[in-house]
Amino acid sequence: SDSQKKKDEL
Amino acid sequence: MNIFRLTGDLSHLAAIIILLLKIWKSRSCAGISGKSQILFAMVFTTRYLDLLTAYISLYNTSMKIIYIGCSYATVYLIYAKFKATYDGNHDTFRVEFLVVPVGGLSFLVNHDFSPLEILWTFSIYLEAVAILPQLFMISKTGEAETITTHYLFFLGLYRALYLINWVWRFYFEGFFDMIAIVAGVVQTILYCDFFYLYVTKVLKGKKLSLPA
Predict the structure, then answer these.
(1) What's the pLDDT tens digit per position in B106-127?
(2) A6/B54 CB distance under 8 A
(3) In which compartments does the protein localize (chain B) (predicted)?
(4) Across the interface, do B50 and A7 touch by the CB < 8 Å criterion?
């Protein structure tokens, strides 16, 4: 799912 | 990156620095829940393990290191350096009632059953409830130092700004993470009572004391 988008948030 | 996430991160950083300076300068952690600070150190440790595996940006890496460093320094000041001023009699929230359910839930509801992802999920769920021991302690002592209320205000504001950031990212990037959003909503709701008291009392120069 698009939540797999690289975890770029702190 | 958008203005809401940047402001949110700076608000979070401000909260962490305010608390650290308050304890360091006053050489006292009276009114501060050591349990909440241990939970925050756990949140950062389990969430930022990707420091070892992924490089996103200098900003991302440096903020993570600052968050981890300051949170451990705060725990050290509370439980070691200024241990004599730690108010253990009022910091009595049963954190196992938070860590165990959150740990179980992170195994049941996650995006991917991999160690790093489960630890990330655990940190998201834990962060949502990590402030409860602190709020509980304030309800037990019936008051909070004004500097402590500023710490709580910026800490609560940071995740509220992240909620707006997620609306922004959904609208402009089609990106959303349901786990982070739901936990962020819960986390922000837990501050509502405090926000009300902060705005109606502290911002009017009064001391924050309960019952309101």
Answers:
(1) 999 999 999 999 999 999 999 9
(2) yes
(3) Cytoplasmic vesicle, COPI-coated vesicle membrane; Endoplasmic reticulum membrane; Golgi apparatus membrane
(4) yes
